[in-house]
Amino acid sequence: WNIVNIFDSSVRFCVPVFVMITGTFLLNKDYEIKDFLTNKALKIIVPFLFFSFVYIVYNYGLNRVYSLDLKEFPQFALNSLISGSSYHLWYIYMLIGLYLMTPILRVYTKNATKDNLRYYLILWFAFSTLASYSLNIYLPNFQIPLFLNYTGFYILGYYLSKFNTITPRQGLLLYLTGTALTIGGTWYYAARQNTFNEMFYGYLSLNVIMQSVGIYAMVYKSQINNSLLRKSVALISVHSFNIYLVHVLVLNEMHTITWNYINPLAGILLRSTVCLLISLSISIILKKIPVVNKLL
Question: Does 256 have pLDDT greater than 80?
Fold first, then answer.
């Protein structure tokens, strides 16, 4: 359990950093609303719908589909699309929401001063952190949800792309401190309550925000000198969205394999690597299939 906690705590920055990177790219450009929705937004919505259908069929049961037992399928598919056909797709729903808000947020970021952006981020940081640790119950309900969601990471990515003064060394310190707080806090509450408490795993918690800012500061404008590593990163980057969409399907099938005989440390690394390679291979194959490649 401790090994899993260390690994999971070390990578809690993934979702926030993805949102920050998205903000870096999308909030630095002007868009016509129609052009943005038809070009940018559709690039994530179409693959999302494709893989949502795959998960719907998978969860409904391949045997039921093959045997044309489809009486309950329409309602099942509708419910799955509304609530999410797989647990990890919550991120795509959130991302679509940010995309829909982007033309509006761009007007703000384009015209906001550095101090104004800082003011927004301070409020977001304060309210999101309080909510993450359930401390907001001690405050009046100010009804300002703008400061209680992932919009802050979105604008934070833009802000750091313009005004970042954090050095890579300071970024490393932020990351290590945030990771240590995540590991230690999770272990402390698990030992105290004799059950898993995911409070420190929250993406909007202080410790994960520290992690995320640290990682962003370390990798922003960094260069990869090793040609093999550079090509590998470029290949994964091209397929990263599809990898994310399909990886849970791969993990579900990998769960049918017994991994108990492997040391937990080696097992986590091996399973992660195998899942990445299989997901990458699936994406490469799908992009070579006519019609399907136009959807992805």
Answer: no
- Give me the half-sphere count of Cα atoms (radius 13 Å) on the Cβ side of residue 79: 7
DSSP per position, 189-242: HHHHHSS---GGG-TTSHHHHHHHHHHHHHHTT-----HHHHHHHHHHHHHHHH
Torsion of CA 155, 156, 161, 162, to 10 degrees: 80
Answer left, alpha or beta for residue 68, where phi above 0 means left and psi between -120 and 50 means alpha: left
Contact 41, 238 (CB under 8 A): no
Distance from C-alpha of 132 to C-alpha of 152, rounded to nearest angstrom? 14
Q: What digits encode the pLDDT tens for the residues 45-76?
A: 999 999 999 999 988 887 677 777 788 888 98
Cβ-based burial of 294 (10 A; exposed 0-12, middle 13-18, buried ≥19): exposed
| Cβ neighbours, 10 Å, residue 156 | 25
Q: CA dist 106 to 19, 27, 41, 48, Å?
A: 15, 5, 15, 24
- Phi first, then psi, for residue 293 (nearest 5°) are -65, -25
Q: Position of tokens 């991120």?
A: 91
Can you give the pTM of this predicted structure? Answer: 0.87
C-beta of residue 196 within 8 angstroms of C-beta of residue 170: no
Over range 229-235, report the average pLDDT: 90
